[in-house]
Fold each of these.
Amino acid sequence: MSLENLFEAHQVDLYRDQYQVFKNLTLAIKKNESVAILGANGSGKTTLLKALNKEIYPASKPNSWLKIYGKENWNVWQLRSMIGYVSDDIYKAYTPEVRGLEIILSGFHSSIGVHGSIQQKITDEQLKKTKEIMLELNLLSLIDKPLFKMSTGQQRRCLLARALVNDPQTLLLDEPTTGLDIISTFHYLKLLTKIKNRGRNIILVTHNLQEINKDIDRVILLRKGIVIADGPREKIITAKNISLAYGINIGLSMVDGKYLPYAKG
Ligand SMILES: Nc1ncnc2c1ncn2[C@@H]1O[C@H](COP(=O)(O)OP(=O)(O)OP(=O)(O)O)[C@@H](O)[C@H]1O
Ligand SMILES: [Mg+2]
């Protein structure tokens, strides 16, 4: 059993309800690799993350497998303590009244709320860990704040904290900075650098090329469920590839080591 790969798909078909997003997907991501996944709306980025987190399962067929950390069959709760996931879906699943502390605590059970008997299972140690993370992410003022009264940036940081409580090896981030202002985006990216420097790896879905900085080792470009380019960041992020992925003519300049796309023609 190889534990080298975080993700290993061989000839995998992935569906969302009846809709086939990937056909015969063959792709491997190493355990310690940090990857950005880029592609136009509907190209399959979120579907890929959901397959990684075992929220969706591949269609069963001969000579096809999907292994996460070298295993096909997982207790999903065990897996989710190893993989932190930040996405809009999670945010939408909470009731608006849920408070900051509760959102973050729910990460220990990879659940959406902390209710009744589960609440009693929160240990002093877990509470201590939660407060440490809240302090680190500057969230202590949100302990009692209901979700619907938080700013977008505060909501995003709460979800990141929720994903971090189990100290996961891998973080799946689905457009984590959408809706954040410039300063909050910088703070968020700094946090990701810190997490990366602790030996964790990040799988980042973004439309913002500026976020694909030196923390990212590899870029995978998707177009309509097909991997159209895959390799080291500098080789993959070219005007030609980005134009191909998004289906329009895009130019690319480099400012202070960051990619800046612009529309051409
Ligand atoms: N529940 C569903 N039922 C049917 N089709 C779906 C469902 N969810 C997603 N799809 C389709 O699957 C395809 C891939 O969707 P996915 O969410 O993975 O795209 P994405 O790359 O994350 O896009 P975006 O940038 O808009 O988030 C899209 O064509 C989408 O319409
Ligand atoms: Mg998506």
Amino acid sequence: MTRIRANCPGCGEVDLTPPDVTLRIMRASDGLVGDGSTYRFLCPACDELVTKPADERIAQLLSTGGVPIEELEDIDAILQTLLPPHPERPASGPAFTADDVLAMHELLQGDDWFERLLTP
Ligand SMILES: [Zn+2]
């Protein structure tokens, strides 16, 4: 089995096998390995979980060595589908003007304003 040499911040260089390493890839818009991609492993010497950023070259090396790639969805794309439109996004229709305010003011002077508002 391929041996993978990685660096633990506490222990220095350690030897791993492909099943020891988790490679998580976040694709950039151009299809390449993007920001947020990582690889992680449990250090065999100190048992610390080590997580490091993975770029295109590292991802290539690890996957060639037999580490399976976990593709992560783009979090921004997921949020776009889950969240409602921004609350400050203006509603459709013409903007409310000073003339509209004046018309509303005059309407409210009468006693039948509510009935008039209900009439299309
Ligand atoms: Zn270590």
